[in-house]
Automatic annotation (TrEMBL):
InterPro entries reported for this sequence: AAA+_ATPase, ABC_transporter-like_ATP-bd, Metal_Ion_Import_ABC, P-loop_NTPase
UniProt-recorded name of the protein: Metal ABC transporter ATP-binding protein
UniProt KW keywords: ATP-binding, Cell membrane, Ion transport, Membrane, Nucleotide-binding, Translocase, Transport, Zinc, Zinc transport
Ranges in coiled-coil conformation: none
Record GO terms (molecular function): ATP binding; ATP hydrolysis activity
Signal peptide: none
Gene3D superfamilies cross-referenced by the UniProt entry: P-loop containing nucleotide triphosphate hydrolases
Organism encoding this protein: Psychrobacter raelei
Matches recorded under Pfam families: ABC_tran (PF00005)
Domain spans labelled ABC transporter: 39-263
Gene Ontology BP annotations: response to zinc ion; zinc ion transport
């Protein structure tokens, strides 16, 4: 893989550079500056080596604790690749990434597969993750995601929806500072999808983590996000959902789905998993 002059940065805004934070923001952040955990990457480029094709370019991100960023873009836009850069699963050949040594990242990948011949029970899979939750938090998580009845099952025998719940539980066990969900709704029926979206919406305030969600569900993204990044090998536009409609690139990519600006309406009701009904 050859990397070529792509700018990418992710940082927990204001953690390492307090001089750049205005007075109100300082007050807002001061509660968690003591335990600051951040990651920054700059001047990375990523291109496919044989084809010399640039995969991502000129990307900058910053995210605050408790904030959720949604990433949208067409197939092949580089969304999963960007997630892998953030995670450190792809190594750039130019530029650099700085991560706080104690930054915990939870990840639900777009694709998850294990060899059919590998015997692996759900409890073994979950045991591979460092558990930083209290017993009470873990019990709450297992109850919300209905994990316990699945613990003895072989991972390869899980249904699509069960797999997603287990992967989500696994990503949360480490009590991540940053949670990355790459198209977490794949293979779910509409009811499970709706329930999982609502569960995800509750996570940043519950865990006080930052979250990046890759999604093709434009309606959910526009309804439930305060910040959206539209990616197509570079950042076409970013901002609040209502800001995106002015971008010509956004209109070109999503105009057929986009008629009126969506209004953000966070939900407030209690929800139960479809499997609990
Ligand atoms: N390791 C790699 N080496 C070379 N090319 C890669 C690599 N990983 C991904 N690509 C290419 O980069 C492009 C972006 O892929 P990526 O999976 O990031 O897209 P995506 O936006 O997540 O797409 P989708 O919505 O279809 O999941 C694709 O053309 C893919 O073939």
């Amino acid at each position: 893989m050859h990397l070529d002059n792509v700018g990418f940065s992710i940082s927990s805004r204001g953690l390492d550079r307090q001089e750049g934070v205005s007075e109100p923001a300082k007050g807002k952040l001061s509660g968690w500056l003591k335990g600051a955990r951040s990651a920054e990457a700059e001047s990375l480029t990523l291109a496919d080596d044989p084809a010399q094709k640039v995969l991502l370019s000129n990307i900058s991100l910053s995210i605050e604790r408790g904030e959720k960023i949604s990433v949208i873009g067409p197939n092949g836009a580089g969304k999963s690749t960007l997630m892998k850069l953030i995670l450190g699963l792809l190594t750039p050949t130019s530029g650099h990434i700085k991560r706080h040594p104690k930054l915990e990242i939870g990840y639900v990948p777009q694709k998850f597969s294990i060899p059919a011949i590998l015997p692996l029970r759900v409890q073994d899979l979950l045991a591979q993750t460092k558990n930083r939750l209290t017993a009470e938090q873990q019990a709450f998580l297992y109850q919300r995601l209905s994990v316990t009845p699945l613990l003895k099952k072989q991972v390869i025998h899980l249904s699509g929806g069960e797999t997603q719940r287990i992967l989500l539980a696994r990503s949360l066990l480490s009590k991540p500072d940053l949670l990355i969900l790459d198209e977490p709704m794949q293979g779910l029926d509409p009811e499970s999808e709706r329930w999982l979206y609502e569960f995800i919406d509750d996570l940043p305030p519950f865990l006080q983590c930052a979250m990046v969600v890759v999604s093709h569900d434009l309606h959910w993204v526009m309804r439930g996000s305060r910040r959206v990044i539209c990616l197509n090998k570079h950042i076409c536009c970013e901002g609040q959902p209502s800001d995106l409609g002015v971008s010509q690139e956004f209109k070109k990519l999503f105009g057929h789905q986009y008629e009126q600006p969506y209004i953000h309406q966070p939900h407030e009701c209690q929800h139960h998993a479809p499997h609990e009904r």
